[in-house]
Structure formats: C-alpha cells, structure tokens
Amino acid sequence: MQHLSFLENVKAYVGFDDDASVALRGGHPVIAPHFGAIIDDFYDAIEAHPGARATITGGATQIQRLKGSLLQWIDEIFRGPHDQAYFERRARIGRVHVRIDLPQMYMFTAMDRIRVGSAEVIRNERSLDAVKSRELLTALHKILDIELAIMLETYREDLLTKNRTAERLATIGQFAAGIGHELRNPLGVIESSAFLVTRRLEQLQISDASLSKHLEKITLEVQRSNRTISDLLELARSKPLNRRPTEASAFIARAVAATGLPPSVEVDTMVPAGTILDVDPDQLTRVVTNLLLNASQAMRGSGRVFIAARREGNRSVIVVRDEGPGVPTELRARIFEALFTTKAKGNGIGLALCRRICEAHQGTITLDSSEVGASFRITIPDQSGLGV
C-alpha cells in the first residue's frame, strides 16, 4: 500500500483536486482587489477583543508587519501552487502560532473571519456566473479546511513533543534521584581523599608536579560530576516561582557577573532605562548564565555576546546572541531536548533546563534566525499586573 503524505491525505479527504486549484487561481483577479478590506476587518476584530489583542505585543508597528504577512498568505491561497512546498510553508506558520502560544480558539475564529469575508466577496461578485461562483466557493472552503488541518497538525506535534518531554523528565527524575543517592557518597569520599593526599604531600614536603596535576584533575572531575547530578535533579523537579518586578539592567549585570566569563569574552548590553521584568530573577538568572556559558564555549572563550532586554506590550523579552558558528540547521529542532548534546563534555541539560524554567513562567525560549552566531529569545508574559 502506497504511503500518502499528510497533505495528500488531507487533500483526498476534503476532495481538493487540480480542478479546485484551477478554480482558485481563476478567482484571484476577482478577489484580490478586496484583500485589503478583508485584512482590515480581520485586525479590527482582533483589536475589539481583549484576549485576541493580548497576542499582539508590538503595537501598531507589529500589526502593519502582520498585515503584510497576512496579505501574502491570502494571496498564496488563491495563486497556489498547492503542492508539498505549500504545505511546508503553511506548517512553518502554524509552528509560529505554537511558539507564541496563540490559543487554538483564536486560530479557528481568525480562519473563519477570512472564510466569511472571502465568501461574501465571491457571492457578491457580478462578473461570476452561478456555476463559477459555486466552484470558487467550494474550492475556497476546501483549501481553508486544509489550512485548518495543517494548523491543527502543528498544535498536535507540539503536544506530542511536550508529552514526550514530560515522560522523559519523569524518567530522568527517577534516575537522578537514585543515582544522586548512590554516587554522591562515593564522590564525596573521592574528593576528600584527593584533598587529604594533597595535604599529606605538603606536610611531607614532597613536590611532584605530575602527581599534583592528577590530584587536581580528580577534584575538578568530581566537582563536575556533582554539578551534573544537581542539574539533573533541578531539571526534573518543578520548583515554585517567586515572580516579582525586577529592574532589567541590574538583573542582567548580576547574571553576567555570576557567569564568570573569561576576560576575552565581551558582553554588550542594550536595556532601555526603567525596563522592569515580571520574572523570578533567581531562576531566570540560571537561564541567562547557561546561555552565556554556551556562547563562550561556542566562541572558544573569545568574542562578543550581545544581551538585550525590553518590554513588548505585556511581555518581558530577553535576547542573547553570540558571534560563534551558530547551530547547524539539522540540529536546531533538537537543541532543547534533555540529554541531547553536541559537546564532547556536554551533558545535554543546560538548554533543557532553560526551557523548563521559561515554561514554568508560562513563557518560551526559542532559537531565532541569525546571520552570525546563535540568537536565543526568551519571552515571558506578565502575571503581576505589570503590562502596559
């Protein structure tokens, strides 16, 4: 039995064929002059609803940018071609909706707003006879049903990913609790023994550079092992937040200082005066320090890191960008997975912990597109009445 792609399955189910695609292309000249009115109505509805309006954090500038994207989206519905590349572009849009936590009800109702506006134009168009009008309306409903299916599939993928992550974290938690108990005592004995041997050599005035170097390595590796156990336990448990208004400049300065970057790594900050973040500063510091450490390692301990903190409507946004080699395209989808790492001595916990802390804030951490290096964006919605 031939395996059908998701798009082929959906097309077959709703009965969307080449004739429907031709009908949409033929209707483009008729409906294109009305795109502006349809889009204005779409955003007027958003502005009139507080819940929907809250998803627009960048004000009028963002709305104008989104209107341009929506125009391109509607134009492509009618122009096509409605092939696999079309599906991939639509799926990327759906993933953006997931990333910004757009509630599904707004996705559904927004699509219906486009459907109603477009259908009204077609019905009122006098240049179309009854047959052409009916064919175009039928094709429109079919393609919008496909659009809905694509959007819902991206939400389903996100839910499955979160479920797998939750299951994995539960397993990690059980594993970490057991291994922490079993290993911390012997690690403590090893560390104490290395310390006592070092002290004994000093008392006996025995100078052996090679032996001292190995004892130092033992101590450092024991400390690294203890940190890994602590990170595993922290990743698995859900620590309550203590959110409070936090002055951004001071927060960023403390996070940079706590990271202990080498002198050859420069940090440039861009924080508008008076910027207040609604966060748990202690837990979010862990996120920023992890990103700074990753940036330093990516740049091999030399280069520049840029940190920006700002308000976007009722959200706090922090961006950390470095001048390293960036993240390979094939790995971008996996970098936040627990225990996934590309580093020789990495444990795959740092970015997974960053995501857990951001999600505990009901926020997100994403890897943005960047011409140079890696750029991480932290977005935290307000919960303390701080929004503007």
Structure report:
It contains 12 helices and 7 strands. With 388 residues, it is an alpha+beta fold. The chain folds into 3 domains: 6-163, Globin-like; 165-236; 244-381, Heat Shock Protein 90 (2-Layer Sandwich), CATH 3.30.565. The strands form 2 sheets. It has a 5-stranded mixed β-sheet with strand order 2-4-5-7-6, with helices on one face. It has a two-stranded antiparallel sheet with strand order 1-3. It is elongated, with a radius of gyration of 27 Å.
What would the keywords be for this entry?
single chain; Heat Shock Protein 90; 388 residues; elongated; 7 strands; Globin-like; alpha+beta; 62% helix; 5-stranded mixed sheet
Task: Lay out the secondary structure.
Layout: H1 6-14, H2 18-31, H3 35-48, H4 50-53, H5 59-79, H6 84-99, H7 104-124, H8 130-203, H9 209-236, E1 244-247, H10 248-259, E2 265-270, E3 276-279, H11 281-298, E4 303-312, E5 315-322, H12 350-360, E6 364-368, E7 375-381
Parallel strand pairs: 2-4
Antiparallel strand pairs: 1-3, 4-5, 5-7, 6-7
Helix pairs in contact: 1-8, 2-5, 2-8, 3-5, 3-7, 6-8, 7-8, 8-9, 10-11, 11-12
